[in-house]
Amino acid sequence: MLFFKKKKEAIVLNAPCNGKIVQLDKLSDIAFNLLGVGCAVNVDKFKGKIDIYSPIDGELVTVFPTKHAYGIKTNNGVEVLIHIGIDTVNLNGAGFDSPCKQGTKIKQGQLLATVDLDLLKSKKVQSDVILVITDETHKEAKIKFLADANNVEVNKPLFEI
After folding, report:
1. Who's near 161: CB < 8 A, 6+ residues apart?
2. In what residue span(s) does the PTS EIIA type-1 domain sit (predicted)?
3. Please, how many CA atoms are within 13 Å of residue 54, restricted to the half-sphere of its CB?
4. For the chain, which terminus, N or C, has the lower number of CB atoms within 10 Å?
5. Catalytic residue numbers?
6. Which structural domain, as residue segments, surrounds residue 77?
């Protein structure tokens, strides 16, 4: 009798916005690299307001009051942190708008937030949109990039684990 090991299904995260890929270890705040695996999407070439979309289906288990960070947990236990910018918590919500509420279900491609990049730039705050897989099961998973590093397209596959 042969036993076949069931192949794990790949988990795909879509790009939350347009931009270019930045490795977590290249960010000015190394804490994100210590949280898990993922990447950031650099949006420096854009001006004005941009929309940030959910990279995956799940429940919004965390919505920071300052609307700069979101935690999503999928049905199969994957936990994803979407953090907009570095040191953006210090803006106390200025430049961020979001229709999302903690505890609600969210779909991949659904609007998470709108960000005023001009305000972030005027405050000299980095605006990279950071995605990190934070749950213990996948924290050290290998990621495979699915997007062109210099031309990430919103709501298109960004990476898989």
Report:
1. 10, 11, 37, 78, 133, 138, 141, 142, 143, 144
2. 29-135
3. 24
4. N
5. 83
6. 43-160
